[in-house]
Amino acid sequence: MTRLSYRHFSFALLFLILVSIVYSNSFESSWHFDDKHNIITNENLHISELSWTNIFNSFYRIQDGRKIIDRPVARLTLALNWYVGKASVFGYHVVNFLIHVVNGFLLYFTILLIFTAPTIKRYGENTAYFVAVLTACWWAVHPIQVQAVTYIIQRMASLAALFYMTGIFFYLKGRFAKERKFQWLFFILSFFAYILAVGSKQNAIVLPFSFLLIEFVFFDLRMEIFKRKLFFLFFILFLVLFALLLSNNEFQFLNDLYKERNFTLAQRLLTEPRVLLFYLFQIFYPIESRFSLEHEVQLSSGLLSPVTTLFAILMIFLLVVTAVLLRRKIPFVSFAILFYFMNHFVESTILPLEIIFEHRNYLPSMFIFLPVSLWLYKLIDYYREHNKFLFGIIFCFISGLIVFIGLGAYSRNITWKTDESLWLDAMEKAPGNSRPYQNYSIALLAYPDRDEKLDKILELNRISLEKKPSGTEKRKQISAYNNIAATLSFQKKYTEAIENYKKVLDLNPNYNKPRFYLTQTYMTIGENKKALKTISKITTIQSQYLNLYALALIKNGLADQAIKTIDKIRETEPDGFLTLVNLSAAYKLKKDYKKSKHYLKQVLIRYPKQILGYFHMIDTCLLLEDINCQEKYGKLLLDMWPINQIFLSLKNMEEEKLDPEISLDNIVLLIQKIIPEYFAEFQNELSER
User: Fold this and answer.
1) End-to-end CA distance of the chain
2) Highest mean pLDDT, choosing among 4-8, 244-248, 654-658
3) pLDDT 10s digits, 171-181
4) Quick one: pLDDT band at residue 678, thresholds 50, 70, 90?
5) CA 605 to CA 613: how far, in whole Å?
């Protein structure tokens, strides 16, 4: 093994150990926030077999009933995760962790390449190795990266960074290559990495400007004609990709400037400089109390309101001007500063995104520790010769610093363990914002002992109505009333729940989620006509909504319309559980019991552990007066589930009324007929209702 290979191996081993320890407690962290609508309920990602159709479908998201290509590379990786492990979080975290590790390796090798640039050849191999190792480790274990790694949907940020850094690495390889054929090879690879980066997240579109920055700082813009032409091609690609984003309505929301936000364009532009300096504060002073999914940020309404606005703008201006003017004297400082601000440009200027999110630092912070690492090496190198004691102190300080920072990331991963812990943390750190209260209440609703917490959940949402909105005042009210309605439904206060769902729909008639739950509430109280009227106004083609519409049609005796609706669902999801159950129920309503039984057989083959399928099959067998069928499925039912669970399931079906109707008496009679000795026990439980 050569000395260089040994060094690479040593770095890889050290890096893997460090990052594995820091993220060892993240692999079972639950789904959070945007994970749910982007992955859990996003049927385009729920592929059950690998086919070109399923792969291309995964590229899309649904917006206002329309399919839009959005970050297709990242979405494809999520779809493949679903294919392998469905909704189990472990596989998603493993992939996110591996992406983070690869990014650390890319950062290490890219820094080694930068040290061979013409303007900084004065540094030796030992310097380059130390700085590359320390920068990569410092960046990878920093707590500000946790949101991009442990928050599953932010794979979009980390994957974009992976291809972005791959593009930089291959660009540098091409820049240093001596032979034309290798120059072409590396530049073409960089070209494709750029496409994949933008396909992962749109903020990677600025990659050609990073190439220009590299030329500006490390090559002094000295390029031969051939490389100038290639550089020109990269900017042509930039324009093409930018045009594609525009044609895909990526910036459509700018047409109705900021109507979904609680701030104006001017306020955002004035506030973001303070946010960027706050990020730097988090990076260089990473105390746990400064990290949160939610932050309270005072909006800037003028240069002196608050006064820190002017200070932040002047500070950033001074940093950028200094970096430009002193790029030859302090190239690493210049590059780190300019790279940081340039890669914040997309998400921290005119686009009406939320004011602050920590994951936005994942890519911009890549080189932020580079000049600090170089300065620390110079200290070590000096005191190695002049003062062994201070050399030891500095070396221990650096080691302790990495451990301290890593512990901070480990601690943040504990906070990200569950939705409850995450939003409780956010509520404590941003008590003036409405969203932590609302999302903490949703987390409490998901717990098995939620019935004991329903009053607290109502209180949290009523408090949230008095807090500052994270979006608009309207969105805050929609979320609060929706949560209040759901909680009242759990308390079986259906009339009050309906009133709150109606408040939500008055604020936003096109919001499908409360319409879905309002329909279910009407079904529960037996108002099937109102249920059908409500669900008929849905504006989405997602199967869960269409299945509820089909169920409402069945409950109103409209079997043929229900079958047409289900046929539409089966174009994209032919074998879904509810789809097949509703289809069998529609044919049962038409008294075509043989066809009903045919679809129920498919249900039991594909979903053998779903008790509802057996109830419907037994009910259909009784209607067919098929004794063998009755006994076969009745015995299977009793073999697979204890009688108390059968009773509980039947009781829930009868109370909730959210499934196609079956005869409870038929099930009871069948149990009496098949196993008479169990009937007395079953009848006693029925009488205790």
Assistant:
1) 76
2) 4-8
3) 999 988 888 88
4) low
5) 10
**pLDDT of 146 above 90:** yes
Average pLDDT over residues 134-147: 97
Contacts of 567 (CB under 8 A, 6+ apart): none
Report H helices in 68-152. Answer: 72-85, 89-114, 125-140, 146-149
Q: Which CATH number fits domain 432-526: 2.60.120.10, 1.20.1540.10, 1.25.40.10, 3.20.20.140?
A: 1.25.40.10
Neighbouring CB atoms inside 10 A of 127's CB total: 17
Model-level pTM? 0.84
Q: Kindly list the domain boundaries of the chain, sorted by start residue.
A: 3-31+87-251+266-386, 432-526
Give the pLDDT confidence score for residue 258 in this predicted structure. Answer: 74
Residue-wise burial string across 219-248, b where 16 or more C-beta atoms lie within 10 A, e elsewhere: eeeeeeeebeebbeebeebbeebeeeeeee
DSSP string, 395-459: HHHHHHHHHHHHHHHHHHHHHTTSHHHHHHHHHHH-TTBHHHHHHHHHHHHTSTTGGGGHHHHHH
* Angle in degrees, CA 171, 174, 179, rounded to 5: 175
Parallel, antiparallel, or unpaired: how do β-strands 60-63 and 66-69 relate? Answer: antiparallel
Under 8 Å CB-to-CB from 59, ≥6 apart: which residues? 44, 69, 70, 72, 75, 76
pLDDT above 60: residue 226: no
Angle at 465 between CA 464 and CA 468, to 5 degrees: 75
- Residue 608's SS3 state is coil
Tokens 């069928």 appear where?
629
> What confidence score (pLDDT) does residue 384 get?
85
Tell me: pLDDT of 653 over 50. Answer: yes
DSSP 48: S
Q: Give yes or no for a contact between 119 and 218, defined as CB atoms under 8 angstroms apart.
A: yes
